[in-house]
Amino acid sequence: MKHFFKNNVSLQDVLTTINIHEESTDHAPVLGVSTLQDLDEGLIACLHNHQYVDQIPAHGKGIIMTKPEWDHYVPSGYQKILVDTPYRLFASILSHFFKKDRHCSISPKASISPTATIGKDVFIGDFCVIGDGVVIGDGSYIGHHTVVESHVIIGQRCHIESHVSIQSAQIGSSVTIKNGARIGQGGFGFHMDDKGPIDVPQLGRVIIEDHVMIGANTTIDRGSLENTIIGKGTRIDNLVQIAHNVVLKDRCIIVAQVGIAGSTELGEGVVAAGQVGITGHLKIGKGCQIAAQSGVMKNLPDFSVVGGSPSLPAQKWLKINAMLKKMVSA
Amino acid sequence: MKHFFKNNVSLQDVLTTINIHEESTDHAPVLGVSTLQDLDEGLIACLHNHQYVDQIPAHGKGIIMTKPEWDHYVPSGYQKILVDTPYRLFASILSHFFKKDRHCSISPKASISPTATIGKDVFIGDFCVIGDGVVIGDGSYIGHHTVVESHVIIGQRCHIESHVSIQSAQIGSSVTIKNGARIGQGGFGFHMDDKGPIDVPQLGRVIIEDHVMIGANTTIDRGSLENTIIGKGTRIDNLVQIAHNVVLKDRCIIVAQVGIAGSTELGEGVVAAGQVGITGHLKIGKGCQIAAQSGVMKNLPDFSVVGGSPSLPAQKWLKINAMLKKMVSA
Amino acid sequence: MKHFFKNNVSLQDVLTTINIHEESTDHAPVLGVSTLQDLDEGLIACLHNHQYVDQIPAHGKGIIMTKPEWDHYVPSGYQKILVDTPYRLFASILSHFFKKDRHCSISPKASISPTATIGKDVFIGDFCVIGDGVVIGDGSYIGHHTVVESHVIIGQRCHIESHVSIQSAQIGSSVTIKNGARIGQGGFGFHMDDKGPIDVPQLGRVIIEDHVMIGANTTIDRGSLENTIIGKGTRIDNLVQIAHNVVLKDRCIIVAQVGIAGSTELGEGVVAAGQVGITGHLKIGKGCQIAAQSGVMKNLPDFSVVGGSPSLPAQKWLKINAMLKKMVSA
Hints:
Three copies of one chain form a homotrimer. With 330 residues, the first copy, chain A, is mainly beta. In chain A, the strands form five sheets. An eleven-stranded mixed β-sheet of chain A has the order 8-11-14-17-22-25-28-31-34-36-37, covered by helices on one side. In chain A, strands 6-9-12-15-18-23-26-29-32-35 form a ten-stranded parallel β-sheet, with no helix packed on it. A nine-stranded parallel β-sheet of chain A has the order 7-10-13-16-21-24-27-30-33, with no helix packed on it. Helices cover 11% and strands 30% of the residues of chain A. The first copy, chain A, folds into two domains: 2-97, Udp-n-acetylmuramoylalanyl-d-glutamate--2,6- Diaminopimelate Ligase, Chain: A, domain 1 (3-Layer(aba) Sandwich), CATH 3.40.1390.10; 164-315, Hexapeptide repeat proteins (UDP N-Acetylglucosamine Acyltransferase, domain 1, 3 Solenoid). Chain A has helices spanning 11-17, 86-97, 314-329; strands at residues 2-10, 29-34, 43-46, 63-66, 79-82, 111-112, 117-118, 123-124, 129-130, 135-136, 141-142, 147-148, 153-154, 159-160, 165-166, 169-171, 176-177, 182-183, 190-193, 196-199, 206-208, 213-214, 219-220, 228-230, 235-236, 241-242, 247-248, 253-254, 259-260, 265-266, 271-272, 277-278, 283-284, 289-290, 295-296, 305-307, 312-313. Chains in contact: A-B, A-C, B-C. Chains A and B meet through helix 2 and helix 3 of A and strand 19, strand 20 and helix 3 of B.
């Protein structure tokens, strides 16, 4: 597909965006961006993985951003922008030229407590509910139908989409929360004995640090006595379950439909692939990588790479899979 | 259970509904439908699987729809409607006689942009938000609290329930979307390197073709540069995750809690049972059948039948399971 | 963490709450509760698992609730409350002293049918939609943005949070439903044959008995011809899928992201751990325990303990896992 810029943009404008200040030799307009296969005159595409070289058409029309060491993969005819981090800079170009117009307005149809403190340049959508004592920082966007219960604090430049519920939470700056996420409800806290179940009131909060992203329909429960904490820069995909008292340190990547049970702690930079389950009360060391659908039932030392359910070191898991296949093929 | 018709209905009325135009020999009223075990005078039940023969009471009162070749399973006394596709026709009877009254009204409590185009006989519920340039086709139903963001196009006779979020999407005709589904938010698109995460803006859309059904709290992300596409007649259950750029061809069946990662393509008529996970960037051939909880990590040729995580041909997977059981029983 | 009471509370007040009527020897105020590690002067913490003994600080300041037989674990200096069920009674103390103030008010911004019957001391939040013929019992709380479709019946003292959708349902008393749960939409009911898919209208309801708790973004479909039933005291966590016609008997525990397919029945007190999948049309006996991520594909007799996918008796499953690990380590 091709995506065209709305305004007139020159190659020099594009280069300035990514902090390349050499004078451009070409003043022809840049019309937009495209995938490699749809590349054409005036468009920029990004070759960020050399496996995709086959997708580049032979016609040689357009501009390709890639790494200096992949220069030779690019067929003749194309203009090139050679940079060390092509995907990062391509993302910057998209962010700059396709920035969404944001109206800074507060819907008269929202229900906003007179004791809430709303910053400058804030958008609050139709039918939002903003409770007593809520604080919303400058430049934040609160989508239609979002409910922010009393005393929640939201930082600056947050982007909170529609139909989100937030209670018992403190949210940093530049946080994105997508449609229908549920933040801060009481967790699965009850005590079951011969006398039947009794609910254990949940008193902790959810602390979401700066630059976190939370996917659509994901659920993050408030802590019981402690807090549930989502560290700086962590990315959480759709339909993920984060139970009470879980701590995710900075820059974790939690893919869709993962479930993390109560009081488990993930170190910095842990990657949990899709549909992983992690038992409660565990410590997962920093930099661990957990293959899709794994079930982690034990503590993991730093930088472990595991797979399977129950999970094993990845090499052992691959070996078992290979062995079993062989045994039934014999 | 028994479900009674609200109006007076004769057997002839019932037969007309399913295009049987022979004159009915019995003019007694038909009172409603029931399960086989609750069948009684004046009720119709459907025997669509001969395993359920035991559920038929011995009393012989009522009407049974079934296949001609199962005629001999039906105890004496029952009136019979013998047709080749009993379940399909039983469904038609339910559709016809239990049709929901639909008020074609537009709530004065909805927030509707003056630039939206609303067709004839449309229902828009309380507190809906309909954005700029939205088009809603004739006869469509938009449940309470649903948010349709600007420039979304919705076809005719769609049934969209409550609390749904729709953005960056084009929706065909006769599409059903259930409560709380999230359509068209940005996907899990970011680039993580030594400098930390950077978001990659998502520019594609979600294209939903005619006769698709999407379950409650399911999430379908917009494409990044390409579109996410859900083909004609495809059925998606609750709590399913469809990532950016996924393509589902026509008549796929995606059961609850399945997750399909980015850019994967499913051919026509693929069946993914509950909690299946499919890795990104794969091609799953048409007619493939994927057993519950399988983890598909490789391309599959047409009509593959697989199970296990990582998935294997189903026969191999069953053989491994049997072998392992035997090994620990010895 | 420490959580302080809002009012002045004495030790005697605390003991009265848990029905200990001996005269307290200490009239010093109790300031609040804490975790074991944050225990301090005037605070109460609960030692409900002797594995947590290490968390008790050495300083001896504060009050510890525990079992009489764990008395010797408590370092000297601490005041003690010795009771047979410390966690249950600690929960009672939290419930009593941290009770949420509930305003019994009906928002003028809600859309309430004139034919709905609303009990005494009911809270209805902003932008709720309450349909024709709905009944809401005394003391129930309906959070902002919740939609209760026509003819739904809700008992007394229910706590229904924000953004919930309820239709075709009958709900008992003291039921909790958390943010974004979807109750009573039509299930995954269609018939697919050579002629393509045809929807099967769903006519059953969802019956939720007393003291049930349902988690955030969980989906419970209405029955097709029968009802979907959730028995008394059952606890369901977040993001769980309960398909049409499922019956959960009393006091089941269904952990996050479990999926239960159509018409399956769970006996009393079944525990399904996180991400379990259970196939349709099964009978799971009472008291069964199903390990996390298991896939249950056969009926289970009462008190079965199973693990694995497909599931096996837990001992066999553990034996297989141990054997495989050994085979690749050799």
